[in-house]
Amino acid sequence: MEAERDPRALTRRSMLFAAGAASLATVLRPGITLAQANDPLPSWNDGAAKRAIIDLVVATTTHGSPNFVAEGERIATFDQDGTTWVEHDPVYSEVLFSLDRVVELAHEHPEWKTSEPFDAVIGGNKSAIASFAKAQWEKIIVATHTGVSVSDFNSAVKAWITSAKDRRWQRPYTDLIYLPMLEAMSYLRANGYRTYIVTGGTQAFVRAYAEKAYGIPPQDIIGTAVGTQFNGANGRMTLAPKLVLNNNFSGKAEDIYLFTGRAPKIAFGNTEGDAAMLEYTQAGGGASAMLLVLHDDAAREFAYGPAEGLPDSKIGAFSQALYDKAKASGWQLISMKDDWKRIFSWQ
């Protein structure tokens, strides 16, 4: 979550401060507190990933740098599932919300008890749910994400995200946001960057909790989106069963431009679905940083790939082809095991 800017935050003028018995002269950029000056990313181990973030910030925010970027043009994008929070439980959080929502709404739809795929969800048939095809998931998404006002859907998500617990740690899902990513967001914002969540999940779902969880307002959430329909009689906006944005693969790059009109200077992802976003960032010119999270810490989180011999996964797969592409393209890999001192704030 974004920390409030310290009213005593340092100005553009260099300041001197004492460290122990010695006098240390330190030049601090705007928005950086004394604590951050020593280590703006305390949950990151020293290494190439941490340096890539800090070096990008220094290069783009230092006046006189050949890679200086004006504050209004500083864009940072973050994929969500598997990049900023846990995606294995054993499936995406939004999928679990959708299944719980079917059960919650079942009393309003008695016909669901005898129709696919709703009967399996209401009956808790896990084997049937695990074999759902795309068409069946689409029915569930339409039933749980549309035909309701924007405000009512927002309230439903907030209620669920507050009460639902993950299966492994038995904690609210917002407790499963990665602390190092929260620090990266805060550090970037302190240096004039505007941070965006760019997710394959639905925009309406993430908008319900992102400001509280990440310090990112609803207007800076770019996600898969259904249509909307305005009712002039009551002034209400309703979510409609029409796909407007498919925010994955090339859609991520396209939608970033649609929302911002600019290529990011730094982008974070974890799957092939994020590759186009990183490619768009790299092609933007000037200094840039492209980072991919590799889940290789089974003890503190999960380990899956199948890159570099890690276990294969249907959820958030990080292929060997993506790993090789990252290496060849100069993208930075973030090893959960090696690059993060802490993964969650409560560890």
If you had to describe this structure to a student in words, what would you say it looks like?
The chain is α/β, with parallel strands linked by helices. It has three domains: 1-38, no CATH class; 40-88 and 177-339, 3-Layer(aba) Sandwich (Rossmann fold), CATH 3.40.50.1000; 93-163, no CATH class. It has 14 helices and nine strands. The protein has helices at 34-38, 48-61, 93-105, 118-122, 126-130, 134-145, 150-163, 179-190, 203-207, 210-214, 250-260, 275-282, 320-329, 336-339, and strands spanning 15-19, 22-26, 75-78, 194-202, 221-231, 236-245, 266-269, 289-294, 332-335. The protein has a seven-stranded mixed β-sheet, sandwiched between helices. Strands 1-2 form a two-stranded antiparallel ribbon. The relative contact order is 0.15. It is globular, with a radius of gyration of 22 Å.
Furnish the topology, listing elements before pairings.
Elements: E1 15-19, E2 22-26, H1 34-38, H2 48-61, E3 75-78, H3 93-105, H4 118-122, H5 126-130, H6 134-145, H7 150-163, H8 179-190, E4 194-202, H9 203-207, H10 210-214, E5 221-231, E6 236-245, H11 250-260, E7 266-269, H12 275-282, E8 289-294, H13 320-329, E9 332-335, H14 336-339
Parallel strand pairs: 3-4, 3-7, 4-5, 7-8, 8-9
Antiparallel strand pairs: 1-2, 5-6
Which residue ranges are poorly predicted, with pLDDT under 50 across at least 5 consecutive positions? 1-32
The rounded distance between the terminal residues' Cα atoms is: 17 Å
| Strand percentage | 15-25%
Number of domains: 3
- What's the CATH class of the largest domain, please? Alpha Beta
Architecture per CATH nomenclature, i.e. the level-2 architecture of the largest domain: 3-Layer(aba) Sandwich
- Major sheet: arrangement of strands: 6-5-4-3-7-8-9
Query: What is the rounded Rg?
Result: 22 Å
Mean pLDDT score, rounded? Answer: 91
- In CATH terms, the superfamily of the largest domain is HAD superfamily/HAD-like
Shape: globular
Q: How many strands?
A: 9
**Helical segment count:** 14
- Give a short account of the largest sheet: 7 strands, mixed
Return the structural class. alpha/beta
